[in-house]
Amino acid sequence: GLAGQLNQHNESSIAAEEQVLAALEQMGLYVDHVHIVNLEPGQVEVEVSQPSKGAYEHSVRMIAPLLSGILGEHITVSHVGETEEGPCTTMFRSARLFEVKTAVANIPREGRSVSGDSYTAVDLDNGKFAFGVSDGMGNGEKARRESKAAIELLKKLMKAGFDEQLAVRTVNSALLLRSQDEMFTTLDMALIDLYSAHAEFLKIGSAPSYIKRGHKVIPVTGANLPMGILQDIDVQTVDEELSVGDLLILMSDGIYDAPQQGVDRDSWLRHQIERLETSDPQEIADTLLESAMRMCQGAARDDMTVMVAKISEYQPEWSSIQWPGLAGLRQLRDRGRQGA
Fold this sequence. Notes:
This protein starts with a helix and ends with a helix. The protein folds into 2 domains: 2-95; 98-313, PPM-type phosphatase domain (Phosphatase 2c, domain 1). The chain is an alpha+beta fold. It contains 8 helices and 14 strands. The protein has helices at residues 2-26, 55-71, 140-159, 164-178, 253-256, 265-274, 281-295, 329-339, and strands spanning 33-38, 45-51, 75-81, 87-94, 98-107, 117-123, 128-135, 187-193, 198-204, 209-213, 216-220, 237-241, 247-251, 304-313. The strands form 3 sheets. A 5-stranded antiparallel beta sheet has the order 5-14-13-10-11. Strands 6-7-8-9-12 form a 5-stranded antiparallel beta sheet, covered by helices on one side. The protein is elongated, with a radius of gyration of 25 Å.
């Protein structure tokens, strides 16, 4: 029955925990406690309590590589609760498979010292990476406050575990509540899953984004109104599967609208992106900003911001340690299940 299965599961977990303890002791590391939360591939969570002296060093150099060797996948330190006195608890999780490097180039509208655009890039610590550009209504200090308030609140909510749809609706409500005078701001955000490279674009009143994959340029568009206008905001998302080497380019209206009337903006931008010879995010951001400035004869008619992100394979800091005679923890768990 269920009780028997639970018991088997607990026994296999305990056996696995004892095995980790024994292996660590053989390496000369004495820990107080090992607790296995999850052993599913890609979702591993193992908690280890150890004396706080040298805890971080031991975790990174020895425990994470040992767990990687036992589990057959890269395990990384996700959190170290260091204390002055008493035991220290470290959480180990499956290592991400991808990483994101971002860069920004921006300039305020001609004659202004402050840009009304804001941007952010943040690892949400839940296996996702978020980055985005927000363009406040108008230019200057007031626009800057609006866009900054929106993007900072969004970042806090998502780091606290809000799902992106709810986070955007909450920010929208906050903007509506704050506005005696109208306050609205666009949002262009990409959320990248660091285990699968799946990307979700949230486009709220923003200019198109582009994905550069080799010589191919893929536009990402959305047709929502900015935040702070409607009570019930419709948050449409666009999903894309990314690959290593892909470049994501987000921008504010100032860049997209840089060409003079009569020039097809989308064709102009695609051409600028296609002819890029570098894959360095900072060089790309700088080059696109310079191209936009040339289009308006060196005098920016609006705040201009370009944000570029590059998808790479994650390189773990340490390779795994293969410990002789140590059975894989998953075999132990699976044996426990078969016995059930």
